[in-house]
Amino acid sequence: MRDVTDLPAPHRRSFLKYTGALGAAAALSASLAACSSGPQSTNDTGGGKGGEDAALTAVIGYGNDGSWDPTQTASAFSMAANQHIYEGLLDTDPISREPYAALATEVPSDLTGTSWKFTLRSGATFHDGEPVTADDVVFVFDRILDPNTQTLAKGFFESWLEKARRIDASTVELVLKFPFPDGLSRLTLAKIMPRHVFSRPGAWDDAIKGKAVGSGPYRQTAHHPKSNTTFEAFAGYNGPRPPAFKRMNWLTIVDAAPRVAKISGASAGAQIADNIPYANIEQLKKGGMSVQGGAGMNNLFLMFNTRHKPFDDVRVRQALHYAIDTGKMVEVALRGHGKPSSSFLNEGNPAHRAAKTVYAYDPEKAKKLLTAAGVSGLRIDILAVNVSWIVDCLPTIKASWDAIGVETTLSPQETTAVFTKMDQKQDYQVVAAASNPNQFGLDADLIMHYNYGPRNLWMQYARWAGDPVARQLFKDMDRATREPDADRKRAMIQDYVDVVAEQAVLYPVVHNELMTAWDPGNLSGVRAQPYPGINLLQAKWA
């Protein structure tokens, strides 16, 4: 995942370093000395039957060495963990994404105005025993809205939120620039952090490296980058979703084979794992595991360097999309767990409708578009991330492009290597990678601004922001954000999504399911989510 904020160029390197690319963590060379005494074995004893004193062991298919700062991170591991460690004023259900009162006592009922007032939950304390106050809330929102501090969270709030204001020790007011009902669900992205901890010199660097102190149902007990992170139930938690597990150990196992092995067989060392390869679904089911998928915005996208000819020509970009046999890709690479894209938004999104330009498989149309653009003898090197399911999809792209006379080379690399090249402004032609904005929410305004904006990092990578079509698109997007009428706003979003589809600068090829597996003999209440990670706030021992 990349930045939803309109990130200015000087901050690109620090953002890439700390957030984790595409939901997978970027590498950090330093570990957090205060949280780790060195690597811990992943041979945890938490497998087998659960019980009151048992440790739940989970396997996460993403790195735990990305940023843990809730205002900064796009790391799949740390975002999932932070849902258990921190609270927002409101949080959202992991599946429906409906807001519920977390640190606040209730969800505002009147969304027509520009002021939301929240009373904090009586007795709420941070994991170090200090009380949660309105000053902590203001501290976090001040950081997010600070014009001199660039955070990922800024892009979720700065367009509509004016400020947070302390009324008294347990009451805070959010002042909006204009009525914005969609902002309610975004409040879960502003995790409330203790001012007395994170206002200290160097504390934000500590947060990036793994220091986590919240008010949620679980507190972090150890953090070993590239190995595991451990948690225990917070005895002082008095909120709406109390902890069901006394201890948890989350292992990071990025490689598919050992991840699947960890939850397989009679001697399984874990009870739940995410990011299950499609090829292992039946094997796990036969072994008694529940394996379920979540369909959402997870997608393989192509991004073109519009300053590298001939990719500045929209006809060339369109041709290469029309040429891809997406039906074969879904059947062979995704084993039926996906759909060809009919819009930038997935079909399950409330704002979805088929775009006016749908890239159905049409190699003859692709050839005609290339001819009309005056392009022949095209050679393309696809710079791709080496995420396993993306690698499975690449041969279909190569075969499809080769078939229309485009000589294609595949260059899958580590995710961080791919985006470091773009961060350094190295030349490239086409990038194939994965993205899933659903980990931030469902509203289309958020999703589209995640990828498109005048100073957006993605648009800097695509080198398209200065194009006249892009400049008009960004204006149309901002007007839609401010539109008060819900039906009119949806229509405006759908209209500019048509432009995004037609231009095909950064555009999904397929949307696919993410699979989660767990032992139903051990766990109940698990729900597979359509974005990376797991949420165990409503799970319990079976």
UniProtKB/TrEMBL annotation:
Q: Which GO terms describe its molecular function?
A: peptide transmembrane transporter activity
Q: Which InterPro entries match?
A: Peptide/Ni-bd (IPR030678), SBP_5 (IPR039424), SBP_5_dom (IPR000914), TAT_signal (IPR006311), TAT_signal_bac_arc (IPR019546)
A GO BP entry: peptide transport
List localization entries. Cell envelope
Which Pfam families does the UniProt entry name for this protein? SBP_bac_5, TAT_signal
- Give UniProt keywords alphabetically: Signal, Transport
Q: Which residues form the Solute-binding protein family domain?
A: 98-448
Q: Which GO terms describe its cellular component?
A: ATP-binding cassette (ABC) transporter complex; cell envelope; periplasmic space
Renumbered to this chain, the signal peptide range is 1-33
Q: Does the keyword Mitochondrion apply?
A: no
The record's annotation in NCBIfam families points to: TAT_signal_seq
Q: Which family does it belong to?
A: Belongs to the bacterial solute-binding protein 5 family.
Query: Could you identify this protein by its name?
Result: Twin-arginine translocation signal domain-containing protein
What is the species listed in this Swiss-Prot or TrEMBL entry? Streptomyces fagopyri
